[in-house]
From TrEMBL:
PROSITE patterns: VOC (PS51819). Gene3D superfamilies: 2,3-Dihydroxybiphenyl 1,2-Dioxygenase, domain 1. This is VOC family protein. Residues 12-127, 145-263 form the VOC domain. CDD domains: BphC5-RrK37_N_like. It comes from the Bacteria. Transmembrane segments: none annotated. InterPro entries: Glyas_Bleomycin-R_OHBP_Dase, Glyas_Fos-R_dOase_dom, GlyoxalaseI/FosfomycinResist, VOC_core.
Length: 316
């Protein structure tokens, strides 16, 4: 897989950090309903880990007056890669939030933050301490790890090109519509089909965040548990064509879409050629045929509110 390694040393998606007004409701949701482990609480911050993942946390919640995406964090293979990437971005006119340094968040590490093309805060870090994790057991319907993050952009092609140019992400596949053009770009930084995807939306916002389950049975049990808890299911269960992964999408209490998935494709060849999939083909949306057909109503659910954090770095 040498050809698919990221040229700037970016290794994987670490965590997605969200600010929410309904903080206690969200804490309860992620812990009791979604199946994450609250590893720690620090004032207005809560850190949630996935039991199967060595990451200190995969979701950070912050109490705030307004809902926003605080940041998306990616891992890097070394402090040297962090320094080189910061120098490259700064030299090419990307707005840095700060210079590389010791991180003050759980697990420490060395990293820096910057704004992407749409104004999201992105963090790249190395040397973050790992946590004690374990193998998720058969029948245990809790997330193993964070899988991917999908973001809305009103110019997804420009955002795709930005991530390719500045962060070395590679395009895996795209979704296309006869009326709307290119609708979603799946981007990879390792051999998973996508760690990031860019969706066409009316404004910059979170489309969804996805969590990998142990297997099909655990994925279905988890889907059922969240449904029984009365959380609104948007779409699924089904299996996408691009990435070949299963999907069940839910709206969390603050209006962000969260996904359970499993069996996301891993690319086993350097000679991967991106496909353009027509979303009018029912198999592109759902190979199983168990989910409702994708509709404008379903699509609108993941437009989310315009993000209040665009080009504003989070306080922590």
């Amino acid at each position: 897989m040498s050809g698919n390694l990221n040229e700037f040393g970016i290794t994987h998606l670490r965590h997605v950090d969200l600010a929410v007004p309904d903080y206690e409701t969200q804490r309860t949701f992620y812990r009791d309903t979604w199946g994450l482990t609250e590893e720690g609480k620090d004032g207005d911050l809560s850190y949630f880990a996935a039991e199967g993942s060595p990451e200190q946390y995969v979701v950070r919640l912050r109490q705030a007056d307004e809902k926003r995406l605080d940041l998306i964090a990616f891992g890097a293979d070394s402090n040297d890669s962090v320094d080189k990437l910061a120098a490259k971005l700064g030299g090419e006119g990307v707005q840095l939030v700060g210079d590389p340094g010791e991180l003050q968040t759980a697990g420490g590490g060395y990293g820096f933050r910057f704004f992407d093309l749409d104004g999201r805060t992105i963090e790249v870090s190395s040397d973050v301490a790992t946590r004690q994790h374990r193998a998720v057991e058969e029948g245990e319907a809790i997330p193993v790890r964070i899988s991917h993050a999908v973001m809305n952009s009103n110019d997804p092609n420009a955002t795709r090109d930005w991530y390719t140019k500045y962060l070395g992400f590679q395009l895996s596949d795209s979704l296309w519509s006869q009326h709307m053009g290119e609708m979603m770009h799946f981007m990879r930084c390792n051999d998973w089909h996508h760690s990031l995807a860019i969706a066409r939306g009316p404004h910059t916002s979170v489309h969804h965040v996805s969590f990998e389950m142990r297997g099909l049975d655990e994925y279905m049990r988890g889907t059922g548990r969240v449904m029984r808890a009365g959380i609104k299911k948007v779409w699924g269960p089904g299996r996408h064509l691009a990435g070949n992964n299963t999907f069940s999408y839910f709206i969390d209490p603050s209006g962000n879409t969260m996904e359970y998935t499993t069996e996301l494709e891993r690319l086993s060849t350097d000679e991967w050629h991106p496909s353009l999939h027509d979303i009018a083909d029912p198999n592109v949306q759902d190979q199983w045929g168990t989910a409702d057909p994708m509709s404008e109503i379903i699509a609108r659910e993941s437009f989310n509110d315009p993000d209040k954090g665009v080009f504003v770095a989070p306080p922590v």
